[in-house]
Specification:
By secondary structure, the chain is an alpha/beta fold. The chain has helices at residues 12-24, 58-64, 80-94, 113-122, 127-138, 177-189, and strands spanning 3-7, 28-33, 48-52, 70-73, 98-102, 144-150, 152-154, 162-164, 174-176, 197-202. This is Oxidoreductase.
Length: 214
């Protein structure tokens, strides 16, 4: 049975991924978060293990990774690079080699035009952590990472997205969480997709100077 570790499991996208994996696969899930009570609905689920812990605790992360095939990091915040260093250290200790990493648009300086300028200001506090995390992950030779750079997130009930590569200008301004979760589920179902890559996700035809609701 394949075992998946989800870090930051209480995040909105992570919860969509969790429910889809439980419905569509036979994978066992380890849900790692600061306060396990937030996901108490899974307490009695036979395929779910809840782990309460800090993302910077390398020993706890390494223990949670025992027997894991894929780590999906849904972590964020201004201290993301610190978390990323801990994830890498734990994966190397536990000999886990596949990572799906939730990054952000702008992490590669890839967002063009006025929207790119607006995005730089809007998430200025967070971009240094995403950019440092990209450098940390790029230096890892034993970890196969797919980074995901979604546009600004919506809660729209839709799956509608296109992708851009690390070498392409970012497209669009928004994308639904369900769309991002769909891409993550595809990666988990087929871990050979997008090896050592960074993929932008956006809803087609949403170009603009900023997201429509701003």
């Amino acid at each position: 049975m394949v075992k998946i570790l989800i870090l930051g499991a209480n995040g909105a996208t992570a919860k969509i991924v969790t429910n889809r994996l439980l419905a569509e696969t036979n994978a066992d899930l380890i849900l790692y978060l600061r306060n396990a009570e937030r996901l108490s609905q899974y307490n009695d689920h036979p395929r779910v293990t809840l782990v309460e812990g800090d993302a910077t605790d390398v020993a706890a992360l390494s223990t949670a990774m025992a027997g894991v095939a894929i780590v999906y990091s849904n972590l964020g915040g201004t201290a993301l690079a610190t978390d990323t260093k801990a994830i890498v250290a734990a994966m190397n200790t536990a000999k886990v080699s596949r990572l799906i990493f939730y990054s952000a648009l702008g992490a590669l300086h890839e967002v063009p035009g006025k929207f790119g300028e607006w995005n730089e200001q809007a998430i200025a506090a967070y971009l240094p952590g995403f950019r440092e995390s990209d450098q940390i992950l790029a230096a890892q030779h034993d970890i196969n990472t797919t980074q995901i750079r979604p546009a600004w997130l919506t809660n729209h009930d839709e799956i509608n997205y296109e992708t851009t590569s690390a070498n392409e200008p970012f497209k669009g301004t928004e994308v639904s969480r369900q769309s991002v979760a769909d891409f993550i589920v595809k990666l988990i179902k087929d871990p050979a997709l997008y090896p050592n890559d960074s993929i932008g996700l956006n809803k087609p035809n949403t170009n603009g100077d900023k997201p429509a609701w701003m």
